[in-house]
Each structure stands twice: as C-alpha cells, then as structure tokens.
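Weekly structure sync - notes
Attendees: PM, LS, DV (DV joined late)
Agenda: review two folding runs queued last week.

Item 1: First target. Sequence and structure tokens pasted below for the record.
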Amino acid sequence: IPALYGLRSEYSTDRSMAFFPAEVLLQLYSYLGNIRVVMSVMAVVSEILVFLAIFAGVVALMKLFERQFAVLRALGASRMYIFVAVWLFASAIVAVGALIGLGLGYGAAWLGSSIISNSSGMSLSATIGAQEVWLAAFGALAGIVLATLPAALLYRGSVASILR
C-alpha cells in the first residue's frame, strides 16, 4: 500500500493526475446515497401534500353536494347510506390515484432513464420495486382511512339546517 501511494504522488504532477478508482467510486456512492435519502423524504412530503389536497378537494366537493345529500336524507336515506356513499367516493379517488400515480411514476422514471442512457452511455433501467408498491399501498390505505373525515362531516350535518 505505501508503494501505491508513492506511485500516486509520483504521477500526480501538473501534467498528469493519478488516483485510486475505489476512492472515486466511494465518493460517488456516498453522493448517490445522500440523494436517495433526499428523494425519499421529498416523496413522503409530496405524498402528505397530495393527501391534504385530496382531502380539501373532497371536503369542498361534499360542501357543494351537501344540499343534495340533505334532500336524500329528507327523502329517507339513512345517515349510514350517506356516510358510505361519501366514503366510497373519496376512497375510490385515492385508490385510483395511487394506481395512476404508480404507473405515471414508472413511466417518468423509464423516460428519464432512457434519456440519461442515451446521452451518457450508462445503462440505466427503471423498475418498480417492492418499496414503491408498498409506498403506494400505504398511501392508498392512509387515504382510505382519511376518507372517513369528509364522510363523518356530512354524517353529522343536520338536515333541517342544511335545507334552510
């Protein structure tokens, strides 16, 4: 090992540069590892923002249809029927959104890897792994659980006060 460092210092001049490939690869892997952590945090934060946006949209939509649901209640629909209808609607939005998002994410990763592969000559392949599937499934499950909130808001509403 001391002889290797001697060669490195001998060939590191103003006209040439000697380096150990392992050192460069180690530095590259550390940068890529840091990027992976940052991208994972960004994915979680963006998923939380998407949940909040979906929740706000569903609540706003349910406020628009509040009068129609109150009319259904006045005509004899049970509170549970209204709750289940709103919950199924919000759950369907979240579940379909998770599937579409997984497909669009794969498509974007495939397109990006193709562009990088063509421009740099490095072979990159985009795949959907278990981690991505679990993240989408967790997101859909969390969204389905959160779908009870707008359903509960309409469930608690008074028919008489809404129809006034």
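Item 2: Second target, run right after the first with the same settings.
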Amino acid sequence: MPRIYVSQKITQDTLSVSDADQLHHLRDVLRLKTGDRITVFDSEGCEYTAAIAGWEKKQVLLSIQACRPPQPERYRISVACAVPKKSRLDDVVDKLTQLGVSAIIPLNTERVVARLTEKEDARLERWRRIARSAAEQSRRTTLPAI
C-alpha cells in the first residue's frame, strides 16, 4: 500500500493533501483512482489507513478509515557526520533514515572540504525531502531531525 507523509496532526475523518510533489506521485506515478487505499503518517508518529474520496485539480481528498497510535521508541540514535564533498550527504541522509536514526547532525570539521554556511536553507530543505522520501519507502512513522 502506498505511503505518504503529512506534516500536520490529523484530527478529522477527512484529509486534504495539496502538496504538489505528493499529488504528482499519487496521481501521475502511482495512478491511483477514487476508492484506492493508502497509508498516511503524520508528525506525531500516528499511522492512518485512508481511502481516496475524490480528486480535485490541486488536491486529493482522503477519507480516514483506521488509526494506529505511535509505537514507543525503544532507543534513540543520533549520528554526527562531517559534510562530504559534492552531494554525498544526500546518500548519507537517505541510508541513515532507512536505518532508523533519530537525528542527523551535519558537521563542519577542521579538515572538511565542503563547508556549510548559515545560508544553506536550500540544502537543508533538500535533506529533509530526502529523509521524508526514505521514511515513506522504509515504512518509518517518524522523520529524523536534521
């Protein structure tokens, strides 16, 4: 069953998803139709089974059918990693998310070639998207803090 992440806590029986990337994935890549079931997980770690109630041009309406409360974490692992050259930290974030790490800390060390500056919002947002995608793929219910 396909999985998507929703950043807000789900409190109602219906949900509207308007994120363009998720909409494209559900409509154009997976080619889901009205009535198909998906799994939705939120920022609290809850997992919901939902059915597609309807499509609109810029959003999909989901009907929540079942809720599974968050599972308690037995352990929390944080990994601090020096920033490698090029875009290799993308792969590090992906693999650590799939392994279940709770926090990923990019470090500027003395001998590191690639430096992080204060204006690295675009890279940080990219790493968060990669972590979200890896969590959806590996069936995690929480995202790591980056």
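Discussion on item 2: The two ends are 27 Å apart (CA to CA).
Action: LS to circulate a short write-up before next sync.
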